[in-house]
Specification:
Elements: H1 3-9, H2 24-35, E1 46-51, H3 54-63, H4 69-72, E2 75-82, H5 83-92, H6 103-126, E3 130-134, H7 141-148, E4 154-163, H8 191-208, H9 217-220, H10 232-238
Helix pairs in contact: 2-6, 3-7
């Protein structure tokens, strides 16, 4: 197995970071890798806002509802769907952009943001750094818009903490791969048994690492009973990112 696959198969989210800066060289390498990530039609409709200022990171931690590891990590990167960039390019040719008004547009932006996120994770972990993705950046999207001075036609869809690892974390077990890989046709026939087995496996994992607050996977999905970040749609709409086409 090559080093890249070894790093990826050893992925775990880190929530404890040293009080040690990520070097400019490391950060530049991570961002350069993300810059080369593919985007739909080469639209390059993703931008990054790199936040290293301690007060600004502390404010982001507040906006996410108290994710204090954002304040602790020396680097936080907001991944932005940026149709402002593509709109400017089209206007320079006398054309009008419509993609940002569509469900397809938000889907494309989210997919490409995810590709950039995954690329940065692989790059950072290959350098021995720890990371944790932050979906909580969508909890108070207007606060993030204001803090990062995001213009219309942009939206911060996800973030990433990067830093040197203070306390490592074990690799968390996953659902059986049969629930992930489908050959030729989608087949959910193994799901019920796999979910029950995974609930038991995960509880054993929590016990092994001394996590008395750990819950079965099925129970952990309780937030899916609601739209847990309800401000996403109205703030995205105010930013000009609609989904009515």
């Amino acid at each position: 197995m090559n080093p890249t696959l070894q790093t990826q198969l050893h992925h775990r989210s880190i929530r404890s970071f040293k009080d040690e800066a990520v070097s400019d060289e490391m950060l530049a390498q991570i961002i350069a890798a993300a810059h080369q990530a593919p985007t739909s039609m080469n639209a390059q409709e993703i931008s990054l806002v790199v936040v290293r200022d301690a007060e600004r990171r502390a404010r982001i931690a507040e906006l996410t509802g108290g994710m204090n590891y954002i304040a602790q990590a020396p680097v936080f990167i907001a991944i932005i769907i940026d149709f402002n960039k593509t709109d400017l390019a089209l206007r320079n040719t006398g054309k009008t952009q419509l993609i940002h008004e569509s469900m397809e547009g938000f889907g494309v932006g989210a997919v490409d943001a995810g590709i950039v996120l995954g690329t940065m994770i692989a790059a950072a972990e290959s350098l021995g750094l720890g990371i944790v993705p932050i979906g909580g950046i969508r909890r108070d999207p207007q606060g993030i818009v204001d803090l990062l001075a995001l213009p219309p036609l942009t939206f911060a869809v996800v973030g990433l903490c990067i830093g040197h690892i203070a306390i490592d974390a074990p690799v968390k077990p996953r659902l059986n791969i049969s629930t992930f890989r489908h050959d030729e046709r989608y087949d959910a026939s193994s799901y019920s048994a796999a979910i029950a087995a995974y609930d038991a496996t995960l509880m054993q994992h929590w016990q092994n690492i001394g996590r008395s607050d750990g819950t079965p996977w099925s129970t952990s999905l309780a937030p899916f009973q609601s739209v847990y970040y309800p401000a996403v749609r109205p703030v995205a709409a105010m930013q000009g990112l609609l989904n009515d086409k």
